[in-house]
Design goal:
It comes from Desulfopila aestuarii DSM 18488. This protein has helices at 7-20, 30-33, 41-56, 68-76, 86-110, 122-126, 128-143, 166-176, 213-216, 230-243, 258-263, 281-289, 300-309, 350-356, 364-368, and strands at 23-28, 60-65, 115-120, 147-152, 181-186, 207-208, 247-252, 270-272, 294-298, 318-323, 330-334, 340-345, 382-384. It has an eight-stranded mixed β-sheet with strand order 3-4-2-1-5-7-8-6, with helices on both faces. The protein has a five-stranded mixed β-sheet with strand order 10-9-11-12-13, with helices on both faces. The protein has two domains: 7-284, Carbamate kinase (3-Layer(aba) Sandwich), CATH 3.40.1160; 292-384, Archaeosine Trna-guanine Transglycosylase, Chain: A, domain 4 (Roll), CATH 2.30.130.10. It is an alpha/beta fold. Bound molecules: adenosine-5'-diphosphate and the ligand N[C@@H](CCC(=O)OP(=O)(O)O)C(=O)O. Adenosine-5'-diphosphate binds at residues 29-31, 66, 186-188, 191-192, 194-197, 218-220, 222-224, 226-231. Residues 29-31, 66-70, 93, 151-152, 154, 165-166, 226-229 line the site of ligand VHF.
Length: 385
C-alpha cells in the first residue's frame, strides 16, 4: 500500500531534500530545446544561467541533453516523409551534436563556466570496467570544476543495444555517480493523472511516494512531436533513481529560473521520494543497466527459495532454458506463468544450463565435465523484481 502524504508534508520533504542535494543530474528533452525556426536559444540561456547558479553554490552538476537529432534536422532542413528511421537519426545526430555543443559552449562561456562533452553508448555502461571508468572520468571533470554534458552516442549505437531514450540514460548516470537528485525538464508542468494535452480533467501530481503500477499507468503511450520516451520513460527513470536511493523531479523546462525555484522549495512539478532502503550499486547495475540475454523458467520450490528465503539458484529448480547466453551474462528467472521474478548474472552458458537443469549440484561436473560454481546464479548477483 502506497503511503499517502498531504501537500504540507510533501513540501517539507521537497525543501529538505533539495536543500541537502549536493550531486544533481539534470536531463533536458528535445521538446523544449527547439522551436519551429531552430534551437531555442532562450530556453538554453535560461537553463545555462540556472545551472551556473547551482554550480556556484558548490553543487556538482551534470547535464544530460537531448536535441542532437532535432538540431541536425533544423540544420539541414530535413523534412521526413513519415517516422524518422534509425539510419537517418544516426546521421542527423552526427550533424546536430556539434551544433548543440557549440551553443552550450558559447552560452555557458558567457557565464564563465566550462563544459565537457561526454557521449555514451550502452556498452560503456554494461561492461563493468568501462562503467567504473566513466565514473572516474566524471569525478575528474567535477574536480576540474567543469559541467559535463552527456548524450547518447546515437551515431554509433546499435538499435538493439541502445539506452533508447535520455530519461533512462539520465537515471543510469544519476545512479552511476550516486546523485542525490535527478531533474527531468520537459514540455509539461509535471506528471498528471492523465495526458494534459488530451485530457481536460487531468490533474497534476505533486508528490509521488512510490512508483506503483497505478502511477505507471498515468502515462499513456504518448510523447511530444520531437520527444522519444514520453512520460512513460520519465516515470521508469524516476523509479530507477528511487531504487538507488535518490530523489527525482519532473517539471517544466520552459519556466524561468526553474532550478532556482526548486532549490528554494517552490511547489512546482512532480517530486518523487527515494526508497528508504537503497539497492546496492552493483545490484542496481545488474537490474537496470544489463539487458537480459535469456530466461530460465523455475519450479515452485525454486521461486520460493529465491523470493522468500534469499537463496541462490541451484540447477535442480530449473525447468526450461530460453535464449543463448554465456557465463557472466544477465539472465531473467520466471515462474511457470512467465512472470519475471528475478534477474541475475549466470555462472554457466545456456547450453550447459540446458544439460544440468533439473539435476543435483553434485552431478554438475559429471554432466558437463567441469564445475566452477555450485550455484547457477549466486544470490549476491541476483536481484528480485
Ligand atoms: N500523465 C502524463 N502527464 C504529463 N505528460 C504526459 C502524460 N502522459 C503522456 N504525457 C506526454 O509526455 C510528453 C513529454 O515527454 P517527451 O515528449 O518524451 O518529452 P521530452 O522531449 O522532454 O523527453 C508530454 O508532452 C505529454 O504529451
Ligand atoms: N539522443 C537523442 C535524444 C533521445 C531522447 O531521449 O530524446 P528526448 O525524449 O527528447 O529526451 C538526441 O540527442 O536527439
Amino acid at each position: 500500500m502506497t503511503r499517502q502524504i498531504d501537500q504540507e508534508e510533501g513540501l517539507y520533504y521537497r525543501q529538505t531534500l533539495f536543500d541537502k542535494a549536493r550531486r544533481v543530474v539534470i536531463k533536458v528533452g528535445s521538446a523544449i530545446l527547439t522551436t519551429e525556426q531552430g534551437m531555442n536559444l532562450e530556453v538554453i540561456e535560461n537553463l545555462a544561467r540556472d545551472i551556473v547558479f547551482l554550480h556556484n553554490t558548490g553543487r556538482e552538476v551534470i547535464l544530460v541533453s537531448s536535441g542532437a537529432v532535432a538540431a541536425g534536422r533544423k540544420k539541414i532542413g530535413y523534412v521526413p516523409k513519415g517516422e524518422v528511421g534509425m539510419r537517418d537519426k544516426q546521421a542527423l545526430a552526427a550533424i546536430g551534436q556539434s551544433v548543440l555543443m557549440h551553443i552550450y559552449d558559447e552560452t555557458f562561456g558567457r557565464h564563465n563556466t566550462k563544459i565537457a562533452q561526454v557521449l555514451l553508448t550502452h556498452s560503456d555502461l554494461s561492461r563493468r570496467d568501462r562503467y567504473l571508468n566513466v565514473r572516474n572520468t566524471l569525478n575528474t571533470l567535477f574536480e576540474f570544476g567543469v559541467v559535463p554534458i552527456i548524450n547518447e552516442n546515437d551515431t554509433v549505437s546499435i538499435e538493439e543495444l541502445r539506452f533508447g531514450d535520455n530519461d533512462t540514460l539520465g537515471a543510469l548516470v544519476a545512479n552511476l555517480i550516486e546523485a542525490d537528485m535527478f531533474i527531468c525538464l520537459t514540455d509539461v508542468v509535471g506528471l498528471y493523472n492523465g495526458n494534459p494535452h488530451t485530457d481536460p480533467d487531468a490533474r497534476p501530481i505533486y508528490t509521488v511516494t512510490e512508483v506503483t503500477p497505478e502511477i505507471e499507468a498515468m502515462a499513456g503511450n504518448v510523447k511530444s512531436a520531437l520527444g522519444t520516451g514520453g512520460m512513460q520513460s520519465k516515470i521508469r527513470a524516476a523509479k530507477m533513481v528511487a531504487e538507488g536511493g535518490g530523489c527525482s523531479f519532473i517539471g517544466p523546462g520552459r519556466m524561468n529560473n526553474i532550478l532556482q525555484q526548486l532549490f528554494s522549495g517552490e511547489m512546482v512539478g512532480t517530486f518523487f521520494l527515494p526508497k528508504t532502503t537503497r539497492m546496492p550499486s552493483r545490484k542496481h547495475w545488474i537490474s537496470y543497466v544489463l539487458k537480459p540475454k535469456g530466461r530460465l523458467v523455475l519450479d515452485g520450490g525454486a521461486c520460493v527459495a529465491l523470493t522468500q528465503k534469499g537463496k541462490s539458484l541451484l540447477p535442480s529448480g530449473i525447468l526450461e532454458v530460453h535464449g543463448t547466453f554465456g557465463a557472466g551474462d544477465a539472465v531473467e528467472c520466471s515462474d511457470q506463468t512467465g512472470c519475471v521474478i528475478a534477474v541475475g548474472l549466470i555462472n554457466y552458458s545456456s547450453s550447459d544450463v540446458g544439460k544440468i537443469k533439473g539435476r543435483k549440484t553434485g552431478e554438475i561436473a559429471a554432466i558437463i565435465g567441469f564445475k566452477d560454481d555450485d550455484e547457477v546464479m549466486h544470490r549476491d548477483n541476483l536481484v528480485l523484481k
